[in-house]
Amino acid sequence: MMQLYWCPRTRSFSALWLMEETGVPYERVLIDISKGAQKTPEYLSVNPMGKVPALRDGDATLAEAPAICAYVAERYPQAKLAPGDPMRAKYLQWLFFATGCIEPAMVQLATKIEMNPTSAGWGDATRVFDVLDAALAKGPWLLGENFSAADIAIASGLNFAVRLFKMAPSRASFDRYLDACAARPAFQRASVIAAG
Ligand SMILES: N[C@@H](CCC(=O)N[C@@H](CS)C(=O)NCC(=O)O)C(=O)O
């Protein structure tokens, strides 16, 4: 059984939601970051960054939420969270967009740091949210009718940015998308768990 290292009210949410979507039993291992549990030698051997979430699958361990999404989706093909060709191309793009573009855009909005958008990998926050807006215009999911682990990675970040921390203004496409995500039973189970 996979073990998910997690902590309430953190970026563990996407991994929790993912595991709940698979329907496969998993064990939750609480790493209480308010008590420094992420800095113990034992946990640092799982994730040397000392951050949650992380995952153990037998002898394999990994961290970084989108990587966990990709790994688990591949491991459990019956959950249909990892599409094949030709959708796999955009699926991978959106998985990497979650921490490669949405996260730094959020940091930029919070800190108001000016960056040259040509040099910054995410361009700027407006471009990130415009691109996401256009991708979600049709829906219901990023890949059309196919819900995937990329939705879990992207919607978790978008939910933090738009709803929880209100860093970026919402848009009609974001509202519709986040409402559709929130209506999923797995999202709701994960929300209860993540609340601690
Ligand atoms: N890049 C990581 C970020 C994980 C992360 O920053 N987790 C925070 C909680 S939201 C954490 O564990 N902080 C504890 C610490 O840094 O001591 C991912 O996407 O999984």
What does this 3D model show about the protein?
There is one protein chain. By secondary structure, this protein is α+β, with helices and mostly antiparallel strands. The chain contains 8 helices and 4 strands, in the order βαβαββαααααα. A 4-stranded mixed β-sheet has the order 2-1-3-4, with helices on one face. Strand 3 and strand 4 (60-63) form a beta hairpin. Helix 1 runs parallel beside helix 3 (65-75), helix 1 (12-22) packs across helix 8 and helix 4 runs parallel beside helix 6 (149-164). It is globular. Residues 10-11, 33, 38, 50-53, 64-65, 99 line the site of glutathione.
Mean pLDDT: 97
Order of helices and strands: EHEHEEHHHHHH
Structural class: alpha+beta
For the termini, the CA-CA separation is 22 Å
Low-confidence regions:
none
- Beta-strand share of residues: 5-15%
Largest sheet: 4 strands, mixed
Question: Secondary-structure map with pairings?
Answer:
Blueprint lengths: L2 E4 L5 H11 L4 E4 L10 H4 L9 E4 L2 E4 L1 H11 L11 H25 L13 H11 L13 H16 L7 H11 L2 H10 L2
Helix pairs in contact: 1-3, 1-6, 1-8, 3-4, 3-6, 4-5, 4-6, 6-7
This protein binds glutathione.
Keywords:
196 residues; alpha+beta; 4-stranded mixed sheet; 8 helices; binds glutathione
Please sum up the structure shown.
The chain has 196 residues and is of the alpha+beta class. It has eight helices and four strands.
